[in-house]
Amino acid sequence: xxxxxxxxxxxxxxxxxxxxxxxxxxxxxxxxxxxxxxxxxxxxxxxxxxxxxxxxxxxxxxxxxxxxxxxxxxxxxxxxxxxxxxxxxxxxxxxxxxxxxxxxxxxxxxxxxxxxxxxxxxxxxxxxxxxxxxxxxxxxxxxxxxxxxxxxxxxxxxxxxxxxxxxxxxxxxxxxxxxxxxxxxxxxxxxxxxxxxxxxxxxxxxxxxxxxxxxxxxxxxxxxxxxxxxx
Amino acid sequence: xxxxxxxxxxxxxxxxxxxxxxxxxxxxxxxxxxxxxxxxxxxxxxxxxxxxxxxxxxxxxxxxxxxxxxxxxxxxxxxxxxxxxxxxxxxxxxxxxxxxxxxxxxxxxxxxxxxxxxxxxxxxxxxxxxxxxxxxxxxxxxxxxxxxxxxxxxxxxxxxxxxxxxxxxxxxxxxxxxxxxxxxxxxxxxxxxxxxxxxxxxxxxxxxxxxxxxxxxxxxxxxxxxxxxxxxxxxxxxxxxxxxxxxxxxxxxxxxxxxxxxxxxxxxxxxxxxxxxxxxxxxxxxxxxxxxxxxxxxxxxxxxxxxxxxxxxxxxxxxxxxxxxxxxxxxxxxxxxxxxxxxxxxxxxxxxxxxxxxxxxxxxxxxxxxxxxxxxxxxxxxxxxxxxxxxxxxxxxxxxxxxxxxxxxxxxxxxxxxxxxxxxxxxxxxxxxxxxxxxxxxxxxxxxxxxxx
Lengths: 231, 453
Prior knowledge:
The structure holds 2 protein chains of 2 kinds. Chain A is α/β, with parallel strands linked by helices. Chain A has one domain (about 45-230): Ethanolamine ammonia-lyase light chain (EutC) (Rossmann fold, 3-Layer(aba) Sandwich), CATH 3.40.50.11240. Chain A contains 8 helices and 6 strands, in the order αααβααβαβαβββα. A 6-stranded mixed β-sheet of chain A has the order 1-3-2-4-5-6, sandwiched between helices. The N and C termini of chain A lie far apart (about 40 Å). Chain B has a domain at about 145-450: TIM Barrel (Alpha-Beta Barrel), CATH 3.20.20. Chain B has helices at about 15-25, 30-35, 40-55, 55-60, 70-80, 80-90, 95-100, 105-115, 120-125, 130-140, 170-180, 200-215, 230-235, 250-255, 260-275, 290-295, 305-315, 340-355, 375-385, 410-420, 425-435; strands at about 5, 10-15, 145, 150, 160, 190, 220-225, 245, 285-290, 320-325, 360, 390-395, 400, 405, 435-440, 440. In chain B, the strands form 6 sheets. In chain B, strands 7-6-5-12 form a 4-stranded parallel β-sheet, covered by helices on one side. In chain B, strands 8-9-10-11 form a 4-stranded parallel β-sheet. Chains A and B meet through helix 1 and helix 2 of A and helix 11, strand 13, strand 14, helix 20 and strand 16 of B.
């Protein structure tokens, strides 16, 4: 192994794939096509009831009825029906310091892959510091901007959405955390603090949990998030 | 002002220039989402007929956002060359379209006239043009800009080397960087999107780029695409930086959603002039993309092509070195499939060039839209033929941080070879000195990054 090999080992990028003239070798061309096929499938798959049961999450859904609506109607994927809101107020926690919830977003596989290692650690880290954490739940057909409704509805100081990222070719399991201090419907997008690329190929979920807990502590202290938060 | 027409015996009446522009736009899922697109194909064409007969003056006087309400509108209208505007204000949009398509008018003459066109007027022209029209005009417009090297000379086609890494690991970034150089990528800029937007991460990667650039004597420019405030912190701390990057949008409110404003952009330009490590006079790098205003709830009822064109009106104020549309990144809510993707890319390339900008394109798609690598292949050849200044170079087109696909090191080499295009001049000589580029195509050492160690 030479020095370049040691550099190359530090990235999952598709390097050293060779060439025939200025085009790809047959195998690397087909490997790419296979990865794209898997990514397409991840977008369209659903998080199963079994998975949610195992994770101890109850389920609500946005105004979207299916994946197609989720993909083309961001305005529906960020809000809930009146019945769902009432259900949330009854079954979730009102008035916690922090409300964490999970959403499928664009990758169903990301939930089963990351939440088991991340969510319990994150809760524990916060609760050890005397921060109250609302009962977590799962939102199907979920967009990040559900936070704008969830925050005021459950009267949480900080809202943290753990949501499936758009799958790449490297992995269909990546998750992001969108964290925001006192979200509301009119807030600017720049109010979110984002931790992205959470997966075994990027930031490991355990490490992400510790980092997110630090971020949330700072938000509660500085009473700010996004660009206004100094980390 | 005439806002009605009859088509196939049916009368069509519109209520404003903004509505005519929106309904005359080619199909985009974002306009449908906003509820402002044409109801059907006939209404779309009816709006195009009405638009063709509106004068330049009428369109100029109907900006997407009021002058008094929006800093972007003020920049666009205050920057208009009044002498050029006077020459064209009485023409209809249909007549102006024919003027710029005439093969007897030179590219330089079009660019001079275009200084009298508002972003809405330029968008209006695009709405009356087919894909080939858009390519035909853009190709004639030769626009250069200089940072350390000069981009945009005829016969060149440049590449941003984009060595992104999921956690900004410096070793991993170095591997992608060296391999990209070995395929001839990196003459537009060596620029990475950081996974973590902190001063430390931005500084670490800028220092890495500067070390490699200095050690290998690479004639190019370096940039890390973190938020503008992070980059300015790095700049003030003395970190080497050739270009300052920011994503921009076509209204003041949308700019605010990106955490920036017109004063911050002006300040960045001035700080780069004073403290940047590049020669200049062009120091900024902007990214745009149709749909970002609607995504931020800041489109003010205007369609996404008009709002995109206004990004270029804003950009031209700051004389940037690079501008590119990230055309397929935003998702199917705004650009649904490959047909919309290709159309939007050609519109953006045209509108950017008409604004006198060194215009590139991130030819890309995400895995939740109806497009694939074959569409990127097609669009790459179209844009390279249409005077596009630069595209992205990524290992096998797969960005392992941003999780989307763009164009690859291999793709750039193939299209340069096919169309007889070269890397930027001093960079080409540098590649030749390493045996990476020989006789207009990849040379014997291409694809071997070990030659740099």
